[in-house]
C-alpha cells in the first residue's frame, strides 16, 4: 500500500504534515476504512519518530488526529475459535440439528457465501485433490428453485479444501441419495431433512433457528451469528494462518484488497510491523496456488 503511493517517493526529511494527511485521504478514497488507515498512520508515525529522535527531522509529520476521515460503519465481528467450538459441539449433540453439524462445520472452514454453499454439487468438489469449484448459487424465487450467477466475477474461483471442510464433505457425501434436477444440475450436496436441496434463504432461516436454540443453552450474551458471520470467521482464520492479502482475497472471492482488509479482518499493529520489517515478503501457500491452476 505504502510503496504504491506517491509518498513512498518522497525523502523522509521532505515529508510534510499536508503530505501525510493527503496520504490518509487517498487511502479513504480507495475504500480503506478508518480503522485500517489509523493502523497505517501508526506504522508511519513510528518510522518518522525514529527519524525525529535521530535529529533527522524537526517534526513528526504523522503527529495529527484523523478527525478529517469519516468514521466506519458498525464492524462485523467474527466468532472466536472458542465460540465456534461451542456452537459446533452444541449442534453435534442436539437431537434436532445434529444432521446439520457437517454443514455448519463446512461453512466455518470454507468461507463460502450462503448461496455458494447451497449451489455446490458433487461435480464441483474433489476430495482427493482438495479443491472446491465455486461456480453458481442455488436460490429460491416465489418458492421455486433457481440457479443464480455468483455475486461478482471474482466470486468464480477454485479454492483449497482445508482439513475441517474436507472431513465435513467426506462424511456428507458418503451417504448422499439421489437428488432432484434443477436447471440441469443434480447431486446437490447440502440438503434438508426431507432430502431437498437447501437454498440460500432456507440456509439463513436454518442458521437463525439453530442459533436461537443454542443461545438458550449458554449463560452469556451471544454476538450476532449468521451465514455471513461464518464467512467473517473464516477470513479471520486465514489471517491467523499468516496468509498474504492476495491469497485471502482470492479464497474469499473478493474483488478488492480493501474489502478483505477492512470488512473482514481485524489487523493489529504488531502484525503489520512484522511484515514491514520483512520488506513485505509474501508467504505463498502452495496448496492454494495449486488450486488456482487446477
What does this structure look like?
45% of the residues lie in helices and 7% in strands. With 294 residues, it is mainly α. The strands form two sheets. A three-stranded antiparallel β-sheet has the order 1-2-5. It has a two-stranded antiparallel ribbon with strand order 3-4. A hairpin with a 2-residue loop joins strand 3 (137-141) and strand 4 (144-148). The longest helix is centred in the first third of the chain and has 20 residues, at 34-53. The chain starts with 16 loop residues before the first helix and ends with a helix. Residues 263-287 have low confidence and may be disordered.
Describe, in short, the structure shown.
With 294 residues, the chain is mainly α. The chain is built from 12 helices and 5 strands.
Question: Which key features would you list for this structure?
Answer:
12 helices; three-stranded antiparallel sheet; two-stranded antiparallel sheet; 294 residues; mainly alpha; 5 strands; single chain
How are the elements arranged and paired?
Blueprint: H1 17-29, H2 34-53, H3 81-93, H4 101-108, H5 114-119, E1 125-126, E2 131-134, E3 137-141, E4 144-148, E5 157-160, H6 163-173, H7 200-215, H8 227-241, H9 245-252, H10 257-262, H11 269-277, H12 286-292
Antiparallel strand pairs: 1-2, 2-5, 3-4
Amino acid at each position: 500500500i505504502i510503496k504504491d503511493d506517491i509518498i513512498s517517493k518522497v525523502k523522509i526529511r521532505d515529508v510534510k504534515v499536508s503530505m501525510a494527511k493527503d496520504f490518509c485521504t487517498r487511502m479513504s478514497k480507495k475504500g480503506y476504512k478508518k480503522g485500517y488507515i489509523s493502523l497505517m498512520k501508526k506504522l508511519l508515525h513510528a518510522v518518522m519518530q525514529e527519524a525525529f529522535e535521530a535529529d533527522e527531522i524537526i517534526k513528526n509529520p504523522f503527529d495529527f488526529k484523523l478527525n478529517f476521515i469519516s468514521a466506519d460503519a458498525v464492524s462485523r465481528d467474527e466468532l472466536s475459535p472458542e465460540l465456534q467450538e461451542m456452537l459446533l459441539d452444541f449442534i453435534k449433540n442436539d437431537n434436532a440439528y445434529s444432521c446439520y453439524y457437517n454443514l455448519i462445520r463446512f461453512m466455518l472452514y470454507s468461507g463460502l457465501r450462503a448461496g455458494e454453499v447451497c449451489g455446490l454439487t458433487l461435480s464441483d468438489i474433489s476430495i482427493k485433490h482438495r479443491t472446491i469449484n465455486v461456480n453458481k448459487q442455488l436460490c429460491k424465487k416465489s418458492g421455486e428453485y433457481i440457479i443464480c450467477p455468483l455475486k461478482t466475477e471474482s466470486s468464480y474461483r477454485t479454492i483449497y479444501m482445508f482439513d475441517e471442510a474436507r472431513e465435513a464433505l467426506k462424511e456428507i457425501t458418503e451417504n448422499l441419495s439421489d437428488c432432484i434436477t434443477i436447471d440441469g444440475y443434480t447431486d446437490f450436496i447440502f440438503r434438508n431433512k426431507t432430502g431437498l436441496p437447501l437454498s440460500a434463504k432456507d440456509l439463513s432461516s436454518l442458521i437463525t433457528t439453530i442459533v436461537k436454540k443454542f443461545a438458550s443453552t449458554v449463560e452469556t450474551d451471544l454476538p450476532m451469528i449468521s451465514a455471513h458471520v461464518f464467512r467473517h470467521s473464516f477470513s479471520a482464520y486465514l489471517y491467523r494462518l499468516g496468509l498474504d492479502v492476495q491469497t485471502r482475497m482470492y479464497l474469499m472471492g473478493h474483488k478488492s484488497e480493501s474489502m478483505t482488509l477492512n470488512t473482514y479482518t481485524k489487523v493489529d499493529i504488531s502484525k503489520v510491523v512484522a511484515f514491514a520489517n520483512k520488506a513485505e515478503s509474501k508467504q505463498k501457500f502452495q496448496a492454494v496456488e495449486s488450486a488456482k491452476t487446477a
